[in-house]
Design goal:
Layout: H1 14-39, E1 45-47, E2 56-58, H2 61-73, H3 76-80, H4 86-122, H5 133-161, H6 165-178, H7 196-205
Antiparallel strand pairs: 1-2
Length: 209
């Protein structure tokens, strides 16, 4: 069973908020420790919380000082290369959401135009009277797109099934050599001849004469 999606909002209940703070703080410090061990990098953590008299420092005050001194000696470009503020982070999220919205609007428009195209085909090629100029342009674009796709598939299918004549003849000859023709059957024997006397005797036995 999948994990329930967490709603990112301020926890109103004091007890639940304090428990969440404790669990998340321990998990964060554990992740930082794993990051330094697995990737061999320098990292530190300083957490100020309302429930602790002193800030939580990892790994130690001297370790934090070493990491901060390395950061300060780096160039300004390296310091700000992957650094984001709250404003820039929200701006990135808004731009990403707007891009997804534009893509979804294009997909919806294409599906609506496709449905309109099939409705017109089912109606014998009749276009609804209330169609706008923009809708007609979209419909013409969709029809042209499908015609090009159909033409492309037909051309690809013809190219796949196109076999040179010499190659076809060679294959036919090889098939004849591998599979000899079946033996000829003897002609059927003619039916036995019946004489006039035998025919008269047969008719007499049947009571016809």
């Amino acid at each position: 069973m999948g994990r329930k999606k967490l709603k990112l909002a301020f926890i109103e209940k004091d007890t639940a908020r304090k428990l969440a703070y404790k669990n998340r703080k321990n998990s964060l410090l554990k992740k930082v420790d794993e990051l330094t061990t697995l990737c061999g990098i320098d990292a530190c953590a300083i957490i100020f919380g309302p429930y602790d008299p002193q800030p939580e420092i990892w790994p130690s005050p001297s370790g934090v000082q070493n990491v901060l001194s390395k950061f300060k000696t780096a160039s300004e470009f390296d310091q700000r290369k992957k650094m984001v503020t709250q404003e820039s982070f929200l701006k990135q999220r808004v731009e990403k959401a707007e891009k997804q919205l534009r893509q979804q609007l294009r997909d919806n428009k294409e599906k609506e135009t496709t449905m309109l195209m099939f409705q017109c085909l089912n109606a014998g090629g009749m276009v609804p009277n209330d169609s706008s100029v923009a809708g007609l342009n979209d419909l013409a674009w969709m029809i042209d797109k499908n015609l090009k796709e159909i033409g492309r598939k037909i051309e690809s299918g013809d190219s796949n099934t196109n076999i040179p004549q010499n190659q076809s003849e060679n294959q036919s000859q090889e098939q004849l050599q591998m599979d000899p023709p079946p033996p000829l059957l003897p002609p059927p024997s003619p039916p036995p001849s019946v004489s006039d006397n035998d025919e008269v005797a047969m008719m007499s036995r049947l009571g016809w004469i």
